[in-house]
TrEMBL record:
Belongs to the FliR/MopE/SpaR family. This is Flagellar biosynthetic protein FliR. It comes from Turneriella parva (strain ATCC BAA-1111 / DSM 21527 / NCTC 11395 / H). It is found in: Cell membrane; Bacterial flagellum basal body. It holds the Pfam family Bac_export_1. The keyword Membrane applies. NCBIfam families: fliR (TIGR01400). InterPro entries: FliR, T3SS_IM_R.
Length: 262
């Protein structure tokens, strides 16, 4: 037991980190993947990483004094990495809501199969396309690799991490860049369609003044929906290309965040 004890404790630390990641990371979280599957993935990943994990002596000593706190700390690290990648999917959902409001689908909601919550139709479509890009780009495997790398890079936060302060720590600076990039990514994806629909609204306004007898309020909804779908279909390759670029940017930012963690 003296030999197995420390090794089992290290296994539980790595397991807590992976289970937290799979609970919030895109592609793994949500009701689309059963909890038992996430549990099994975390267990297998921890079993593979633990034998090669190089834990410092300071962590082994701290385990004897504050085991539960260190387990929670490992879970926080996994949550941090998963939420950082989740920002990108929030950007896609935000872009979809921009589309829906401009096209007249703001109150038309369907059940999103990923999150199991109701959201606008175009937002659900964007989420599904984003999930496709997420798996095709290999970001789902990179998330696991990034967490495995974080075990070596950041085995233990320690109290020195808290003493640095939030604003002085590089981790939070990269986290702020990722969260701020969410709005930039949403605008990049939504701006072409919103611009076209804005031109349609201006045109309809001019036509309503030129021909008051025409009921532009009723015609406007149908015209905006048709124009919105046509523009969306034409710009679909560009939107997907932008999604791939933003996925690569987020992966690079996440890698830099982990490297700057200490």
């Amino acid at each position: 037991m003296e030999i197995l004890g420390p090794q089992f404790q290290i296994f539980t630390l790595v397991f807590a980190r992976f289970l937290a990641l799979f609970s919030v990371a895109p592609g793994y979280s949500g009701d689309s993947l059963p909890f038992f599957s996430r549990f099994a993935l975390a267990f297998i990943s921890a079993a593979i990483i633990t034998p090669v994990a190089d834990m410092p002596d300071s962590l082994v000593r701290d385990l004897e004094r504050a085991y539960i706190l260190i387990v929670l700390e490992q879970a926080v690290i996994g949550l941090f990495i998963g939420i950082a990648m989740q920002f990108l999917f929030a950007a896609y959902q935000l872009a979809g809501e921009f589309f829906s409001v401009q096209m007249g689908f703001g109150i038309s909601e369907v059940l999103d199969p990923m999150s199991q919550v109701s959201m606008p139709v175009i937002g659900t479509l964007k989420n599904l396309v984003a999930l496709f890009v997420f798996f095709v780009s290999g970001a789902h495997t990179y998330l696991v690799q990034a967490l495995a790398f974080s075990v070596e890079r950041v085995p233990h936060l320690g109290f020195s991490f808290l003493k640095q302060g939030v604003l002085q720590n590089q981790l939070f600076k990269y986290f702020a860049l990722l969260s701020g990039g969410m709005f930039i990514a949403a605008l990049k994806i939504a701006l072409p369609v919103i611009g076209c629909l804005l031109l349609v609204s201006v045109t309809l306004g001019i036509m309503s003044k030129a021909a008051p007898q025409m009921n532009m309020l009723v015609l406007g909804f149908s015209i905006k929906i048709v124009v919105g779908f046509v523009v969306l279909a034409i710009l679909a390759p560009l939107i997907v290309q932008t999604m791939f670029a933003e996925m690569d940017r987020s992966v690079s930012m996440l890698d830099a965040m982990i490297k700057a963690w200490r």
